[in-house]
Amino acid sequence: MQLDFGCANITESGWRKLGTERRAQWKCPQCRPSSPTMPASASEPSVSASLDVILCEIRDIRRQLVNLPTLVDDIKTIKEELSELKMFSEFSSGRLDDFQAKLVELEATVGTTVALRDSVNIVQADMAKLQFKLASDDQRSRLNNVEIKGIPLKTNENLFSIMESICREVKYNCPKSAINYISRVPMQNSKEKLIIVSFLNRYIKEEFIAAARAIKELTTSNLGFHCSPQRVYINDHLTVESKQLLSKVKAIAKERNYTFVWVKYGKIHIRKNTSSKTIIIRKETDLNKII
Questions:
Q1: Any idea which fold 142-237 has?
Q2: Is 50 exceeded by the pLDDT of residue 229?
Q3: What residue segments make up the domains of the chain, in order of their start?
Q4: pLDDT digits (tens, 9 = 90+) for 255-268
Q5: Sequence-separated (6 or more) residues with CB below 8 Å from residue 235
Q6: Is the dihedral of CA 263, 217, 160, 186 positive or negative?
Q7: Which of 56, 110, 256, 268 is the most buried (most CB within 10 A)?
């Protein structure tokens, strides 16, 4: 076999050093069958393209990695905020537990307060009833009494003589034996004193008042007083509370055009006109009846 050592890219001495077996298997690279690989000219563009893709990806990764420090800082900030949020949540949870405990305590207090308020309302209602009963009993104890207002106070006066003069003037026969007692009493917020006459029964008292009211105008000059004449008033002997209530009734009657307001048997009566129903006012809440 003749070899072209230049073509085979091997020296003759190198060839001889291969040994018998290796020389038997050795072939010139030019004479070997061609490999199925693509020719260099075809593979070079593919390799170049792959390198471009890789470079693009590397550049993209590098661009993304530029913001990595900021991202790390943001993550740290988020972790800190989450930690603070956790602490605040735990604190809020504790405060909420305190609030719930206080709410339970407050509910218990409110329940006690409501019960106490109900008890107070009951007591106030009972007191109002008791006060009304006491006032009614006080007024009832005066059913036989009349008060005479406008008589001048004199030293060493004789009240029975004054009473006799009044009875003559109103044309009512009232013997001294029909009188239980007669006395001067102070007027509220005034230096003047009233005369209180207590009869033995309320029927004599009612007859005396009816006779006095029949006289259109009774004055001190009619009774023999020589001072400046002034009007003398004879009315039921009312308690302070009843007098205050009567003043309110008169004010409402004037405002709402009620014609008649009077007192009989210690009770206040009001009537709008002769054809309307009479209303009895016993306590302040009864003023709502005056429409």
A1: Alpha-Beta Plaits (3.30.70)
A2: yes
A3: 142-237, 239-291
A4: 999 999 999 988 99
A5: 146, 147, 149, 209, 263
A6: positive
A7: 268
The encoded tokens of residue 141 equal 């104890």
Is this prediction's pTM over 0.70? no
Please list, in sequence order, all residues whose beta carbon lies within 8 angstroms of the beta carbon of residue 252, skipping any fewer than 6 positions away. Answer: 258, 287, 290
Bridge partner residues of 161 (DSSP): none
Q: DSSP characters for 78-147?
A: HHHHHHHHHHHHHHHHHHHHHHHHHHHHHHHHHHHHHHHHHHHHHHHHHHHHHHHHHHHHHHHTTTTEEE
Inter-axis angle of helices 68-140 and 40-66, nearest 10: 40
Give the span between the Cα atoms of 203 and 199, in whole angstroms.
9
Measure Cα distances from 153 to 160, 161, 162, 192, 279 in Å.
Answer: 14, 13, 11, 8, 37
